[in-house]
């Protein structure tokens, strides 16, 4: 009795289910040829070669665009660096440009300035960003309002440079402030001293770019495993001890990548130099970018400038590559 | 070593009540297990003892001292986390050493203490590895070693075995119990696994929706449940709970007729454990729904009306489905619960 009742219950369901399935299959069969035929027709007209090339054609515009603005100028620079270029007159020079550059005191000075200004600036902003991130990451307000801290980064670089030029040199705002709190008597001539001039560049760069590192560090700290933090609390670690012993080592790959990106950016520092100091006093703030610009667009030694660019590119790649590689290798083991 | 008292502890998260008015005395050297389904407040309770959560109200006393305002790092409490929470950048040796360094234990004692803790959990051979190079069970043991190395007043364990496979879990269970007896440290252990609770605990606290349902030894919890929640939560399969009517000393429900105390009347729930049922006996009439042999015992499911009743039958019991069957109950092991789920106890 029970068995038969179950069978009765199943029977209509099976009937019900089979019907619409059959009809839907039928409808697909009926519709498919009508819509599919024209499209297969056009596809068939394409040659097999065309068909295999199609995906490449789709990405071609983007690839061409990228090649045109990165690879082509790069190769052009390498090519040009082998010539002495006087406007339209190119004279083959081989590696002469490189030989002359390596003996050029101005080149070495520019390299040194870049390292000094860039290194101090990078170190300073990394430390400040880490410190800020450490104090801020547990604050719920930071989560919601990260974008506010990005503000300096969103301003146009030249506008920022002009702002600091006004504050340091033309407007003497900083000098006034220093006088008010009694640190200096009289006006400070920021461009008269090598280190003060460099300081203005460093301050401007730190002000604009610390937020970039700060945001990345805060994200890394907020992303770390909460349980590990709690375990460390119960093991008796203070917040600074947790940060120093656990958070910081775990953040290492993030720190290295962020600092490398920032470092690459800093080696090409140009806007602030161009607007704020023009390399003065006596070339003490002339960075590599400004040196290249001066050789190319003021003295029109295009071959020479190209050679300097190539050298700088090679150095940047070499340093960045070793840094990143080392950071990730030791992070893994 | 210390006792713990919770006095009217309340924890609210906004309008959500995590723990409601909880009071509990945990004796020195006791192994106490907090047991309950997820979201019942057991982990919250433990985190309040640890100092990782601040109670909304009430008092927490550890070793005779009110610790409400004492920071987690100063409570001398060690905790083993569900996800182990080892420091991935340090070797196992340095992981175990971390609490010693942070608590300013003299450096010349570190090595001896670390090796002793590692021996206790049989981890001596892995001290120079990083946590990433260990298996789940080894990581768990490393976390245990880190907790025991500084001999804290209280151990807290938050589902420490739930990420391990079944076989490893069983062997780790014994190790944890052995270690606790050896060290004689007051331990609070959170789990949703009743086997862990029954096997490890001196006393079990069963919680549901932030409220303690029953506190007792594993035996008391099992054989003397306070309400239908405890009865239905403990045991595998859990106690059969059958709603019905009791009048004039007889409990009746669809297919069931058993004698009951005359004090039990009205709509009540009958509880009977699967092992207190026998095939044949005439208290329950139903149909065989399924037979599941497991080797040492056979699980029999009997359908009566719309309900299924679980029975532990003899290992060689077999029956085809949909055949009528009669089941007898051990009348000395019947439990009756009132409509609100509370146990109806015989007047003593």
TrEMBL record, chain B:
PROSITE patterns: ABC_TRANSPORTER_1, ABC_TRANSPORTER_2. It comes from the Bacteria. GO terms for cellular component: ATP-binding cassette (ABC) transporter complex, substrate-binding subunit-containing. It is a peripheral membrane protein. SMART domains: AAA. Keywords: ATP-binding, Cell inner membrane, Cell membrane, Membrane, Nucleotide-binding, Translocase, Transport. One of its GO terms (biological process) is carbohydrate transport. It holds the Pfam family ABC_tran. Residues 4-234 form the ABC transporter domain. It is found in: Cell inner membrane. PANTHER family: MALTODEXTRIN IMPORT ATP-BINDING PROTEIN MSMX, TREHALOSE IMPORT ATP-BINDING PROTEIN SUGC. Belongs to the ABC transporter superfamily. This is ABC transporter ATP-binding protein. The lineage of its organism: Bacteria, Pseudomonadati, Pseudomonadota, Alphaproteobacteria, Hyphomicrobiales.
């Amino acid at each position: 009795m029970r068995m038969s009742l179950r069978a009765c219950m199943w029977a209509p369901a099976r009937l019900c289910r089979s019907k619409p399935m059959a009809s839907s299959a039928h409808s697909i069969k009926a519709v498919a040829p009508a819509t599919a035929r024209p499209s297969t027709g056009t596809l068939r007209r394409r040659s097999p070669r065309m068909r295999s090339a199609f995906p490449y054609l789709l990405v071609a515009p983007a690839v061409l665009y990228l090649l045109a603005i990165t690879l082509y100028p790069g190769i052009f620079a390498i090519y040009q660096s082998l010539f002495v270029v006087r406007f339209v007159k190119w004279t083959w020079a081989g590696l002469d440009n490189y030989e002359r550059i390596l003996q050029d005191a101005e080149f070495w000075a520019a390299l040194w300035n870049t390292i000094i200004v860039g290194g101090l600036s990078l170190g300073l902003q990394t430390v400040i960003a880490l410190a800020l991130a450490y104090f801020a990451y547990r604050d719920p307000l930071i989560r919601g309002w990260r974008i506010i801290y990005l503000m300096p980064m969103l301003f146009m670089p030249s506008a920022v440079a002009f702002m600091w030029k006004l504050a340091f040199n033309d407007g003497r705002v900083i000098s006034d402030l220093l006088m008010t709190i009694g640190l200096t008597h009289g006006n400070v001539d920021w461009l008269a001293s090598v280190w003060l001039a460099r300081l203005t560049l460093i301050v401007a760069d730190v002000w604009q770019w610390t937020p970039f590192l700060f945001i990345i560090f805060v994200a890394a700290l907020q992303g770390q495993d909460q349980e590990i933090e709690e375990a460390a609390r119960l093991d008796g670690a203070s917040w600074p001890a947790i940060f120093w012993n656990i958070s910081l080592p775990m953040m290492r790959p993030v720190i290295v990548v962020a600092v490398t990106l920032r470092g690459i950016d800093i080696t090409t520092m140009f806007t602030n130099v161009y607007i704020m100091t023009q390399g003065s006093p006596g070339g003490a703030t002339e960075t590599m970018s400004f040196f290249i610009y001066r050789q190319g667009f003021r003295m029109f030694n295009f071959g020479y400038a190209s050679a300097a660019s190539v050298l700088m590119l090679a150095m940047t790649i070499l340093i960045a590559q070793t840094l990143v590689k080392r950071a990730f290798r030791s992070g893994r083991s | 070593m210390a006792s713990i008292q919770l006095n009217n502890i309340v924890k609210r998260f906004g309008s959500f009540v995590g723990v409601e008015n909880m009071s509990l005395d945990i004796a020195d050297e006791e192994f106490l297990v907090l047991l309950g389904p997820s979201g019942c407040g057991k982990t919250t309770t433990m985190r309040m003892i640890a100092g990782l959560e601040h109670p909304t109200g009430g008092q927490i006393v550890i070793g005779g001292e009110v610790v409400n305002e004492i920071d987690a790092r100063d409570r001398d409490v060690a905790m083993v986390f569900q996800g182990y929470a080892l420091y991935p950048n340090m070797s196992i040796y340095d992981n175990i050493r971390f609490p010693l360094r942070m608590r300013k234990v003299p450096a010349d004692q570190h090595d001896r203490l670390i090796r002793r803790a590692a021996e206790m959990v049989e981890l001596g051979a892995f001290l120079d590895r990083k946590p990433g190079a260990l298996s789940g069970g080894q990581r768990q043991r490393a976390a245990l070693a880190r907790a025991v190395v500084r001999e804290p007043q209280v151990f807290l364990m938050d589902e420490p075995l739930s990420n391990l496979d079944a076989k490893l879990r069983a062997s780790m269970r014994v190790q944890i119990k052995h270690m606790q007896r050896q060290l004689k440290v007051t331990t609070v252990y959170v789990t949703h696994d009743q086997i862990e609770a029954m096997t490890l605990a001196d006393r079990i606290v069963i919680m549901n929706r932030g409220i303690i349902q029953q506190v007792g030894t594993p035996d008391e919890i099992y054989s003397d449940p306070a309400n239908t929640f405890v009865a239905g939560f403990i045991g595998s399969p859990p106690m059969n709970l059958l709603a019905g009517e009791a009048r004039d000393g007889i409990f009746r429900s669809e297919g069931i007729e058993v004698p009951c105390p005359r004090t039990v009347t009205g709509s009540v729930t009958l509880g009977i454990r699967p092992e207190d049922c026998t095939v044949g006996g005439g208290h329950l009439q139903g149909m065989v729904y399924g037979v599941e042999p497991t080797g040492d015992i056979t699980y029999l499911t009997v359908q009566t009306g719309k309900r299924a009743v679980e029975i532990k039958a003899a290992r060689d019991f077999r029956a085809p489905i949909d055949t009528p069957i009669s089941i007898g109950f051990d009348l000395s092991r019947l439990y009756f619960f009132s409509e609100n789920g509370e146990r109806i106890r015989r007047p003593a």
